[in-house]
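Hey, can you fold this one?
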Amino acid sequence: MFDDLLDANRRYRTEFHDPGVAGAAAKGLAVLTCIDSRIDPLALLGLRAGDAKIIRNAGARVTGDALRSLVIAVNLLGVTRVCVVQHTDCAMFRSTDDEIRARISTMRGVDATGWDFLTGTDQQATLGDDLELIASCPLLPRDLQVGGFVFDVHTGDLVRVLDGAGPP
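Sure. Predicted structure:
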């Protein structure tokens, strides 16, 4: 079931060389973005492996686990700025939690009641709320640079829509 991945890794290994990249973020950057397969966070920001810490989840939401990763990245791995990158055409902003629960319950034959999928109807407001969660985290420094962005999956355009808890 994973033979294709192991075969690809064998080919990769023949050309692999340890670049000696440190575990810290060379560009002092953490990027929280969506799991959408159309997003290549390093490429869209002109970065290489080792430049940034990449955190991904459905909808690019600031969850408890995303905050945990940011706290580690900022306090231990050289991160001084955070980009939260949501995107256009995101399923998390086209559906409600109730709709997703119903779809999953029907597909799986189990009750998805109680699951919070963190959907939203207003992407900019949701992004602002998430940036506020970062700004208010007591384990992150007050001078942490935080920006909210939306990536257009059809044009490749990246637009800054918020800085910290307010407009850019």
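Residues 4 and 10 are 10 Å apart (CA to CA). Let me know if you want another pass with a different chain boundary.
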